[in-house]
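Example record for the data management plan.
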Amino acid sequence: MAQNTVTIPKEEYQRLKKKAKIADDALIQLQLSLEDIKHGRISKF
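Corresponding structural encoding:
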């Protein structure tokens, strides 16, 4: 299978890496929150 490459500026690459990390962190936090709800580890405030 042929591999394609794309050239982008370093600044754009770094910006995209930061966005990906933020998205991953948000998904992890969402998963943990849903597990807390499932196990009844929440409180009303």
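Summary line stored alongside the record: The helical segments are 10-38.
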